[in-house]
Design goal:
22% strand; 302 residues; binds molybdenum atom; Sulfite Oxidase, Chain A, domain 2; 9 helices; alpha+beta; binds the ligand Nc1nc2c(c(=O)[nH]1)N[C@H]1C(S)=C(S)[C@@H](COP(=O)(O)O)O[C@H]1N2; globular; 5-stranded mixed sheet; 8-stranded mixed sheet
Length: 302
């Protein structure tokens, strides 16, 4: 199955550019890291001008419970994950359901760099230079039926390669969901890389969601299924602890987690003496997204 937004870049150019990029500054910036596939992406006005965290920080301080609950477990264990071949099944209320390859969902000539703040519900923050495509571009090409009101996402279930899945830490596979207007918002992307290269396994290779105004757990990694439905789906963390994690999970300094304050956070890499920073409404994206929640009680819809 092919989506109609086909890659208009000639194959020879594509291969050439890849070979060129392999020796470029983007690749050199990775220092001692194993060389991954280089990706070219155009800059976006939706990027923050805050300085990104280092590649080192972004790939060694992770939450990816399929590979363990420690922050350094994903970096240690995720190399074993087979990410090629990979396909994403688009199902439910769409005109063109089917299995799609990563290059079909996010063709190289459509890639954008989106430098976003990532605020985890655990009250830390990083800035990540993602590479990806708007989720809206994928949903539009798949063709939304008018009855599609929510999108549900599912991570790969593969306990042979994901040691965390051999234990009932969460109800596997990891699942997430968005309301359709959230999914279609220009800030919402499917990311296939960061820092000029294909997505490191520990960050959700080969394709993951990024929703920058919501707590990090909404940004589900290593997606194999996108399902369009009429009713609101249950997400994994909501199912685990409904009193602590909801469906919306919008970053909100005024609504505390039952066990800790959300008023401030720690910036990863800022240093021991940096002090905490005030958390921003919708993680700093209020101008773009506040209207999505007009009239909603965000204390009830946490
Ligand atoms: N499948 C899956 N996706 C996931 C998680 C997970 O454990 N499994 N953790 C989430 C959480 S809590 C956060 S903060 C972000 C972290 O993304 P990063 O490791 O790329 O910074 O991924 C999210 N996506
Ligand atoms: Mo998180």
């Amino acid at each position: 199955m092919k989506l109609s937004w086909s890659d208009v870049t000639p194959q020879w150019m594509y291969l050439n550019r890849r070979a060129f990029m392999a020796g470029s500054a983007a690749a050199l910036a990775l220092g001692g890291q194993a060389q991954a596939q280089a990706l070219t992406a155009r800059p976006s006005p939706l990027s923050t001008d805050e300085a990104p965290n280092s590649f080192e920080e972004i790939t060694n301080y992770n939450n990816f419970y399929e590979f363990g609950t420690g922050k350094d477990d994903p970096a240690r264990n995720a190399a074993a994950l087979t990410t090629d071949p990979w396909s994403v099944e688009i199902t439910g209320l769409v005109e063109r359901p089917g299995r799609y390859g990563v290059e079909d969902l996010a063709p190289e000539n459509a890639l954008e760099e989106r430098i976003y703040r990532l605020r985890c519900v655990e009250a830390w923050l990083m800035v990540v230079p993602w590479i990806g495509v708007p989720l809206a571009s994928v949903l539009n090409r798949a063709g939304l039926r008018p009855s599609a009101k929510y999108v549900e996402f599912e991570t790969l279930l593969r306990p042979e390669e994901m040691p965390g899945q051999r234990r009932p830490i969460l109800d596997w596979p990891y699942r997430e969901g968005l309301r359709i207007d959230e999914a279609m918002h220009p800030l919402t992307i499917l990311a296939t890389g960061l820092y000029g290269q294909a997505m490191p396994n520990q960050n959700g290779a080969p394709i993951r969601l990024v929703v920058p105004w919501k707590y990090g757990f909404k940004s589900i990694k290593s997606i194999v299924r996108i399902n369009l439905r009429e009713d609101q789906p249950m997400n994994t963390w909501q199912q685990m602890q409904p009193g602590e994690y909801g469906f919306y999970a919008n970053v909100n300094p005024q609504v505390d987690h039952p066990r800790w304050s959300q008023a401030t956070h720690r910036r990863i890499g800022a240093g021991l003496f940096a002090g905490r920073e005030p958390t921003l409404m919708f993680n700093g994206y209020a101008d773009q997204v506040a209207s999505l929640y007009a009239g909603m009680d965000l204390r009830v819809n946490y």
